[in-house]
Amino acid sequence: xxxEHRNHVHAFRNVPRTxxxxxxxxxxxxxxxxxxxxxxxxxxxxxxxxxxxxxxxxVHTVPVDVDDQEYAPVPGVWExxxxxxxxxxxxxxxxxxxxxAAENVSISGGGRTALTRAAASLGHVNLGHFxxxxxxxxxxxxxxxxxxxxxxxxxxxxGYAFTAxxxxxxxxxxGLSALLxxxxxxxxxxxxxxxxxxxxxGVARDLDCTLMLDEFYSHxxxxxxxxxxxxxxAARYVEDVNSDPVMLFDGLTKNxxxxxxxxxxxxxxxxxxxxxxxxxxxxxxPGGGAGQGGDARHPPHxxxxxxxxxxxxxxxxxPHRPRARRHLLRLGLGGAPPAAALGRDGILPRRAHEExxxxxxxVLRREPGQAPEPRRVALPPVRALLVRPVARDARDRxxxxxxxxxxxxxxxxx
Length: 414
What we know:
Layout: H1 3-6, H2 19-29, H3 78-92, E1 105-108, H4 111-121, E2 126-131, H5 136-143, E3 148-153, H6 164-174, E4 178-182, H7 194-207, E5 210-214, E6 246-251, E7 264-267, H8 270-282, H9 325-331, E8 386-388, H10 394-397, E9 404-406, E10 411-412
Parallel strand pairs: 2-3, 2-4, 4-5, 5-6, 8-9
Antiparallel strand pairs: 1-7, 6-7, 9-10
Helix pairs in contact: 4-5, 4-8, 6-7
């Protein structure tokens, strides 16, 4: 009997590690460290978190007021939600009658937490997802049993293209009520943008299928319309922010280059955000990041409520002031975009106040249902590569990395 089997606690199942976690854990066993420049982390989408030439200075310290040490509302503190809504309005919705508000935003402690809460909010529906796509989707879709996950294969010989007509056929043919996808796609890099993205949203309106779009790489755009910022979001093509079936996920992780902060958000119709917040209370996820609420089960009268800061009394009876505003400005989220926010940094590209064109339609979204009977979906395993440095001494030469690619030797092992 192996030590692993002997030490297993039988009340718990063996949970396989995802590709990113597996690669990092195995690399650490071999001496990997973030501070060791001999290693290159290719196991995850790790942005450059340090200073870049011509970019705004990085945020290294954030003073926290004593009042902000208390339990925050489950959807996140009001100031941050309001700043994020304002960012989308400035980037994508200038001059449009329907605009995002704080109630359209929910804060989470990481991208997987945001996706988990969204999945927990789904009813007994068919959810489509692409293969290949972000590997974390596979593990996530196997956890929740209320919905049926239906994979949609993308063909490499077509450049992983998927047109609006393809989308219409899949939704109608498979009876999809929701579709989960990353845009730009991780890992293929395929981007749906401009008029094609507008057509996607038009199909979603026509067939009442909610698009759940992961936009964590939406600032890494190398092509785009002349005179428009090199960023893309489905928010540009939404007509009514409270009825169009479009749900967006993003955060400080990639585009702002602050993955360690674990601050992400979900953007969508108010009714959907309310459902996500309710799911967070029923299924609290670990790792609440900065600006995210803690214990959803704490008595309501002992928690700060999710209402505007002007309506929140302080301990001395005076109205609560939005202390976080200056920190949001430093991150490029609050108020007017900083003049120093250049395209070299992920904070806000140059001319961040300019807008794209209006192109959208109308739809009425289904209310999310409750989760009845469990269902299991068989999913393929995830494989990953591990990169390690060239052996520098006899000890390293005697310790080959199983399943690793040794740089310099040029051999793929395993």
